[in-house]
Amino acid sequence: MTPVNGSPPNSDSDQPSDKLSGKVIAVIAVLVATAFVMMLNETALSVALPDVMEEFDITASVAQWALTGVMLTMAIVMPMTGWILDRFTTRQVYFFAVIFFLIGSIVAALSPTFMVMFLGRVLQAVGTAIVMPLQMTVVMNIVPPHRRGSIMGIISIVMAVGPALGPTFAGLIMSFSTWHMTFWIMAVLVAIAGLVAMRYLQNVGTTKESPLDFVSVVLSAFAFGGLVYGLSSIGMIVTGAPGATAAIVISIVGVVGLILFIWRQLATAKSGKALLNLAPLKVKNFVVAVIVIMAFQMALLGVSNTLPLYLQGALLVSVLVAGMVNLPGGIVETLISPISGALYDRIGPRPLVIPGALIAAGSLYAMATTDHTTSVWFIVVMFAILSIGIGLALTPLMTTSLSSLPGEIYTHGSAIMNTLMQLAGAAGTAVMIAIFDVVSAAGGGTPEAQGEGGSRAFLVAAILLSVAFVFSLFIQRPDLSGSVKTVEPAEPK
To answer: What is the full DSSP assignment across 405-472?
Structure first.
């Protein structure tokens, strides 16, 4: 592989005019396309929850496990991706992820029971959990620092627009078929991506022999699995429903497991055997950026997964309409994210993240005023404004977080960020759906009650983004004055 030296400039006049090579573009395109399909899948089922509940005769609290179960699995797998990306080649990691996602999609499509569908979603989640950190790490290694904002703009489309368009995609499919068809289409799309990758995906970076600490793997499963389960069971715990005691116990196990997991990583770090290198958490700018990202993730996934329930239960719209509400926002974010990335390369994060957080929070405070008489068009407009704020902020946040780290810990920084994003997404989804369920049930499940449940959930999301705004004031532009080496993708041996 040929190193490409790049010293990022501090002014526009210093900007290099070099273009990315064809190999680099091909690798990024394959990873982004695959990740987009997987992220689209993450929320696609949200609009189908009422149909899933009816077909399998289950409650909303059980059905939402089809969503939060994905995030639980990803939260368990992602802490291991730092080790996985160090140990195996790009192609090995990629095809392992694609095979798991493909099998999971087929299992879910054929599912005769909810548990079978849940198993399929878990298998899909394993693939998604690996591909997301993979694409970030690859970009940080092959893209010069002065171009990262632009490329991260494309990745942020995947991370934000994919989940936002999931309900729209499923709504369109369900207008002429059932939710089973969404999984068949996912299987076809990821299979096509895998076939293209066989020709164009090349290896990036070098592998290194790194022993797998099985104790850390077990502690990771207890820690992050327990935490996500506890967060996903908030509604059950609050209402004292059957299983609440078990959920509390599992949550405590998760907290204890997290403490032991952190201790284990610190104890094994000196010998280089840590499953997850926690060194990125010593970098203040990384930590601040990740906190803001988590707040955005909680709000985005929470709103995206609660909105279809509100639209169908309070406004009594069809599945197709409920799915289409997110479409204008997805289009807006698709247009803004690359622009935000390009601007980041010129002006840094603060002029984008701060107004982005304000705009997004303002739109959610407006949505918190809704009820069962609100116009669907008002929701469409507010969600589009929310997407503007997310589009402005997310790309600079992701680029800032990883660019604040030394190159040798990109893989572990990406693993930490993606793991925390899954915890945040699970928390946001569970909390907002729980609020919706509790308030709706208290009012007898009428459209009026479901309208109030939706507005309460949106208010919580607005408060989260207010917190994000406060932390965004402390974000700094990463210091890229040193010489940074990037590498060209290499043909597989």
So the answer is: S-GGGHHHHHHHHHHHHHHHHHHHHHHHHHHHHHHHHHTTT-HHHHHHHHHHHHHHHHHHHHHHHHHH
